[in-house]
Structure formats: structure tokens, C-alpha cells
Amino acid sequence: xxxxxxxxxxxxxxxxxxxxxxxxxxxxxxxxxxxxxxxxxxxxxxxxxxxxxxxxxxxxxxxxxxxxxxxxxxxxxxxxxxxxxxxxxxxxxxxxxxxxxxxxxxxxxxxxxxxxxxxxxxxxxxxxxxxxxxxxxxxxxxxxxxxxxxxxxxxxxxxxxxxxxxxxxxxxxxxxxxxxxxxxxxxxxxxxxxxxxxxxxxxxxxxxxxxxxxxxxxx
Length: 219
Fold this sequence. Notes:
single chain; 219 residues; Rossmann fold
């Protein structure tokens, strides 16, 4: 399973939709093949994504969203204490997620709410979910990769089904069907951990000048 795109509406820190794509949007040149991994055809997944912004612009929230979506796709309970808190209280948040699995492009739209309880605790519930699936063909390319126009609904969440807990995604069934799952390592604990390890016994003068031009050398 490989994530292709995440779009979220209703996040507290974002006035507009939050959206991130994990595949290469532009043509991948031969000289750049070491920075991507080929999914199929001319579709490549970026090996790394850069999130850039000023302080308090939502960079850490973006990382939390990716972790949260990973848990949702892996059918982990969204009320687990280890999951990052990204939802606004008593407001519906809509996740639109596209991913690749078993030679299919899958889109899932999940409506989730975090409700504040009388005792002050919070409870997350999945209100609705819809899933569309389209197979990868020789005609699948960047221009139509995420185009689901005309694709019939594959499955819709039914909260009465015995396998569904109210905080577990319908992906628990999809993962069984496609014999696939996802695992995302949450490394947010390292985001404020800044360490510089120079090679050898000295620091390059260019780096010293960038950090503090008044220092001539460090040894």
C-alpha cells in the first residue's frame, strides 16, 4: 500500500483544505531516479517530502495528519491514546485519501468527529465512509491517476456491521480484500531535536559563515 494523496477539510489550524501529494507531479528524469521509487508506468513516489513554513504555520500539524491517516488506513482505533490530536471539538472533519494497493487506485472519504463528553473526555467517531476502487491499466497516467469520474461506489460504511467499531475505519475490510496494509513510523518526537555532526575534526568555513559570520573557525 502506498499513499498517493491526502486532503482534509475542517482542521483547526487550516482556513482552507489541507492537501499533500506523495507522487512526482512532474516528469522524472533519469538523473533523479535515485530520489523516487517507481510505482507503475510513469508514476513515481517521492522518497521524501519537504514541509516548509514560518513558525506556527501548521508544519507539525501536517506531520500529525500523515500519522493519523496512517492509523486510519491501518484500521487502528482512532480513540487510541497514542494517536496525535488533530480534530476540532464537535466539528466534522472530512478526510479524502487516495492510495495504491494490489494494482488498484483506491479513494476513501471518511467523515470523522471528535465529541467532547460530559466528563471532559473526548470521543472520536467515524460518521460515514465511502470507497471507490479502479484498477490500474495501461492507460493510467498522471493526468487521470486520481480521476474517479464515472467510477461506481465500491463500498459504503454500514455502522451495523459486526466488524466495525465506531472508531475503526472500513479499511479493516478493504485490507482483508486486497491483502494489504500500511505502516507509518511516527518520528515527530525528533522534529525539535537539532544536532550537527561534522565529518572529521573541523567544521567547513561555509557552514560557520552561515551560522555566525563573526566566527573564523571551529576546531
